[in-house]
């Protein structure tokens, strides 16, 4: 809560004290943390008391108002440079509670809207080294005092020699006071870091739904379209936290606000996942997260098998394929053999494009062999 000190009139003496800006900032952070703790407890209390769908509209309204306050605090805190670990932990707890609260609220609101609509939706709707990811120049325009933020993603095995070359290059060419963030899928980089490592985890189911909803509906209010929101929740659950799927399907649905088309997508996803699990023993989006080939099929061409082999990225300055993954799976794009398709474009720096190596194969058809018999030396079919 900001503290304002009014300037006294000239006829009166100046105030005997003043509060430094640093102190005011600390008080703001402290008050935000306290309010965040209270809101977190309120959200959890309402969720615990909502074991069954609420019948009174005031319960939903109270939860909506509390979630709105939580969202304001989270958005405000994200714009500040908070370094206090205790406040950051409270912010994480508040964010998780907010995602959980929104998920519970949306579940009550949309899934109870019309359970009968979901019946019959199926076939009815029918190199070793490193790569510099991003360099962000500081706001200081003075060249001598300029600092850099360099993000490096390891794409191979990190050896002592590779690390020494990276470190020597940074000492020689990177201005003093700069920061280097090294990312990798392997835990072996922990021994090379100078600070405590941060482990990135998959989003919780509630947080993933919040992310998917923002992509799918954008500025459109989901409350005004409960049937679409209910289907979007079910589609989001099928993706098992896959970011590629969220960006790909979310953009596809956003570009095609048509109830029958969404039904077809939902039915196709159900059939694809069921077939993939029964034949290959695993969820296709789990294989995508693990960078393994996945068989996804094509909605408009059931006789073709669409295989997603692997993904790589290109910088914002490089050309990207005109064909999109969603156009191949859910559209009528004609392609054969191996080719490249655009998976999605990042909305944050350094704005990389993620390219997928794909393949379309014709499904093998096993025709029924006609029985043969011999009669009077003549072969009969």
From TrEMBL:
Residues 35-117 form the Disease resistance N-terminal domain. One of its GO terms (molecular function) is ADP binding. Pfam families: Rx_N. It comes from the Eukaryota. The keyword Phosphoprotein does not apply. GO terms for biological process: defense response. Keywords: Leucine-rich repeat, Nucleotide-binding, Plant defense, Repeat. The keyword Metal-binding does not apply. Belongs to the disease resistance NB-LRR family. This is Disease resistance N-terminal domain-containing protein.
